[in-house]
């Protein structure tokens, strides 16, 4: 679903979710990132798959992706990977999580260009 279809309250909730990833640096860095993300929020998409309530007795896990010009987040709660007996209740894999945050405008800190500039991979300075 496109964030352009969200209400103002839903957009604020989306920004709070994004802040959990993109806002882990200092407040000044987050303010800069937030401004860029907000400027393109209507071009950002949210995908969801899996359960819509937290019920550890049901297998399946959850997955979501936030994808926009200035933010990319994936969260995957793996199913059937962390089954455990918790006070007599068998969980169904809700405890094994994979997650990633990237800024598509600065993907991997532009490592290819940085490597070439520093002489890595046979670029200038080698």
The residue ranges in which pLDDT falls below 50 over 5 or more consecutive positions are: 120-126
Report the total helices: 3
Rg is 19 Å
User: Strand order, biggest sheet?
Assistant: 1-2-3-6
Q: What is the mean predicted local confidence, pLDDT?
A: 80
Strand content: 15-25%
What is the terminal separation in angstroms? 47 Å
Oligomeric state of shown chains: single chain
SSE topology string: HHEEEEEEH
- Specify the overall morphology: elongated
Main sheet makeup: 4 strands, antiparallel
Overall domain count:
1
What is the percent of helical residues?
Answer: 25-40%
The count of strands amounts to 6
Which structural class do you get from the secondary structure elements?
Answer: alpha+beta
Structure overview:
The C terminus is likely disordered. The strands form two sheets. Strands 1-2-3-6 form a four-stranded antiparallel sheet, covered by helices on one side. The protein has one domain. The protein is built from three helices and six strands; from the N terminus they run ααββββββα.
Brief descriptors of the model:
3 helices; alpha+beta; single chain; 126 residues
Quick gist of this model?
This protein is 28% helix and 24% strand. By secondary structure, it is an alpha+beta fold. The N and C termini lie far apart (47 Å).
Task: Outline the fold blueprint.
Blueprint lengths: L7 H15 L4 H13 L5 E6 L11 E7 L2 E7 L7 E2 L2 E2 L6 E6 L8 H7 L9
Antiparallel strand pairs: 1-2, 2-3, 3-6, 4-5
């Amino acid at each position: 679903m496109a964030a352009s279809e969200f209400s103002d309250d839903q957009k604020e909730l989306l920004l709070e979710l994004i802040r959990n990833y993109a806002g882990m640096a200092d407040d000044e860095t987050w303010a800069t990132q937030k401004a860029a993300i907000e400027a393109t929020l209507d071009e950002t998409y949210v995908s969801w798959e899996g359960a819509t309530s937290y019920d550890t007795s049901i297998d399946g896990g959850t997955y979501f992706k936030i994808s926009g010009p200035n933010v990319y987040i994936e969260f995957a709660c793996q199913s059937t990977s962390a089954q455990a007996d918790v006070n007599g209740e068998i969980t169904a894999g809700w405890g094994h999580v994979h997650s990633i945050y990237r800024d598509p405008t600065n993907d991997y800190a532009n490592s290819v260009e940085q490597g070439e500039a520093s002489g890595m991979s046979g670029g200038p300075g080698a």
